What does this fold into?
Amino acid sequence: MWIRDAQAHEADALTALVLRSKAHWGYDAAFLAACRDELSIKEGELTARRIVVAEDDTAVLGVTSLEGEPPDGVLGLLFVEPSAIGGGIGRTLYAHVLDTARELGFKRLTIDSDPHAEPFYRALGARPVPAGEGPLPRLEVTLTPRADWAQAWTGGRRAVHLGNVAEFQGQFGEVTDQARRAAGHYACLAAFASPHPAALVLPRPVPGEWIALVARQLGWGQVEVYEDLTGPDVLTRPALVRHLRGLGLPFVPWGHTEASGELSGCGLPSEALRYESKKASHTLFRHLAPDHPGIAVPEQWTSATRRDAARLIAARARSGAATVVKSEHGAGGSGTRVLTRRARARSLPRGPLLLEEYVAGDGTPSDPTYDGLVDGEGQVHDVGVAAMDVADTAYQGATVGPGVVPDELAAHALRFGHAVGRELAATGYRGWYDVDFVTGPGGRLAPTEINLRLTGPSAAFMAKLRLDETRGGDHLVRSLDRVPIGARLPEPELISFLREMTERCAGIDAVLIPSIPTAGYEPDPYVGVLIAARTAGRLDAAEALVRAASADLARLFG
It folds into this structure.
């Protein structure tokens, strides 16, 4: 489904659609005849009223208009073909009107709503105001300015997203077949690399129904999807390269690579990814920490061999200290172990190894993370601070939104993360980054690593921005990257399950957005989801619902 400008020859057909949609609510012929002049669309007013339509391959499905001049406007029309009502067309058209209004500088929109449509608008953030002279309920939408980081990220525009997770990881060492397969699933999160994609390039096939389901929740409209492609593969297809570049939109890779730089024309200098190294990032943390009293950098040592590492781990264990064993590069906690006792040298990865003082998280949350970005001019923009869910050393997901990280902790993380961003900018880095922390004794933050790429929390930040803009309010969003399901499901059955979960979450005033739909037929099947709500109670209830239903699949299939 896509949205386009209405054409003059469609005026009569669109008027008929509007009247059919109005009649859906049970109005009689006499009432509709009385409304006809007011609801008619005339050829000469399409541009002035900014009338657009939603259509699929077979028919026009809906129509809307944005009328008036900034700063105060009117949502004059929003009507959907009766057979398509309930399919997300109205929500997508509404989101399009809000996007257009922001771009044009509108601050407020007024809606004189049909009484039957009032609950729809109120659910999307419109608020009742005193009615005018007419009999219809009047609502108003306040358009808050787009967040400065979102404006800096893509210029406030749609973008071309590249899911080059494995390609990015391959720059720092060999990627095993198992890791490449996992990265292929995780690359689905590239759908959320900006708040509003126009095209998506992914390394493995995805269900077509998946992107339609996500688009319905986030009001995206049409998204072009190109599957089974990596960055280098795209470069061997001149027609596709010309098409993607011809969209005139920014390219957003999951992480910067040589191929993504060639596609976008925005490559990075060789030193720009230096701090993806955990050893280099630790050196930077030590350099910055004296200016940040709320930061305590853990000690770190380099062992050239496994034998040297085992000796140090044993010595620390005898004094009651635990040790973190790290690989220099790795994502999501891969290559990281916490050891509380001596270890056999042969059980450790080959050297050189990074060993780090273990900080037992005793704050709330125990694992905050800062997300920010460096724009094309080298300016740093703070996105926010999220609370990560980490089991042992493995990243499971994150929550963003009001109150998830206490104000004092968030302030420390924001200041330190911003300072890291300035250092990154000095190396020539441009793009998204995050800084992960553990909350140590006394509430001081121990920084553990820098990620010079998009991350799981970044997907939650993008979804939050989109939901806040199109549905109003200040959402809490939780990413759950690996929800085990109790049975292996082929794609059609998995999509049916996700659609059912989406409807059940909506029933408790929460939003479910499937984020990873490709791992449902793995030996240990799972799905990834984003869930959102305006209160913590509803968010927790939605997570409990999804986890319980996923586990119930085991009983359903015996």
Notes: The longest strand covers residues 380-391.
